[in-house]
Amino acid sequence: MIGRDEQTDQLAALQEEVAQLRRAVASHALVDQAIGVVITAAGLRPEQGWEVLKQVSQHTNVKLRDVARWVVLWPSSGRFPDDIRRALSAAVARARDAEHAAASAPESDGQAMSCGPVS
To answer: Which residues form a coiled coil (predicted)?
Structure first.
């Protein structure tokens, strides 16, 4: 049989785990929203939006969820920290350049890959 102290410890551990899972779900939703903002504003594909956010986080040493928060708030507030704005512009430019290079590179059968228009 489990003692009262052990039950209390297990309950506390489970409550902390639930709190962590709730934060993770909220963070994931925020990142998904930020990807939507990036792909809409920059004309990128969803996987490119994810890469852009990761690059911004890595180049600014700002947590991904915090970068996502700034991106999601940007359309309504018009505010962006300068370092995040610069890193975001650079990451979008790299994504567009990569898309353009991939679209103009010949495939193995000698035909160019068709990826659609790039903004």
So the answer is: 4-31
For 117, phi and psi rounded to 5 degrees?
-70, 145
Confidence of residue 21 (pLDDT cuts 50, 70, 90): confident
Q: Report the pLDDT value the prediction gives residue 114, as an integer from 0 to 100.
A: 34
First to last CA, the chain: 66
Per-domain residue ranges of the chain:
4-104
List beta partners, residue 112: 106
Per-residue buried b or exposed e for 28-53, using 16+ beta carbons within 10 Å of the residue's own CB = eebbeebbebbbeebbbeeebbbbbb
